[in-house]
Design a protein that fits this description.
Elements (H helix, E strand, L loop, with lengths): L2 E5 L3 E8 L2 E8 L2 E4 L3 H10 L3 E4 L2 E5 H10 L8 E2 L2 E2 L6 H13 L7 E8 L23 E8 L5
Parallel strand pairs: 1-9, 9-10
Antiparallel strand pairs: 1-2, 2-3, 4-6, 5-6, 7-8
Length: about 160
């Protein structure tokens, strides 16, 4: 069975059929670095906070990242800005890949098909969203990716 994925600046949403019902998994497209010590790592795991470890650092993902940033009076980071990969965030692509993994879950079949949408070029700026298509290079193990560019409605 195929899955659906919407990759937006604010949210990343996965969708699939389970028991003849559509099930959506939505994650805020944000992250925050957290202290990589064993106590924090254990707290994240026990609390079910989605996170990813990159080059010895831990990054909390999604809504939990916003809550942690608020608790520690810091600002959450955004891997996308204005519909494209955020050039100010060096870890943007691996963070997006981790959030996609949370939204989609594990493939249920070998070479599972994933249809995903990405933002179209902005109507109010002079750049294109081609960088967003770099997400296609984020091979999700066991999945075949097919993209759809989300059109601007009413323009």
């Amino acid at each position: 069975m195929a899955k659906g994925l919407d990759i937006g600046t604010g949210n990343i949403v996965g969708c699939q059929y389970k028991n003849d019902k559509l099930v959506f998994r939505s994650y805020r497209n944000v992250f925050v670095p957290v202290d990589p010590n064993p106590v924090v790592r254990n707290m994240l795991k026990k609390s079910g906070v989605p996170s990813v470890e990159l080059e010895g650092k831990i990054y909390a993902l999604g809504e939990h990242a916003i809550e942690l940033a608020s608790a520690f009076q810091s600002k959450p980071h955004r891997p996308m800005a204005r519909g494209v990969i955020n050039p100010q965030e060096q870890k943007a692509l691996p963070i997006i890949k981790a959030i996609i993994g949370e939204a989609l879950g594990q493939p249920e079949t070998e070479n599972e098909v994933v249809f995903y949408s990405v933002p179209a070029d902005p109507v109010d700026a002079q750049f294109n969203a081609v960088l967003t298509l770099a997400i296609a290079s984020l091979k999700i193990v066991g999945s075949t990716l097919n993209f759809i560019i989300t059109p601007h409605l009413g323009h």
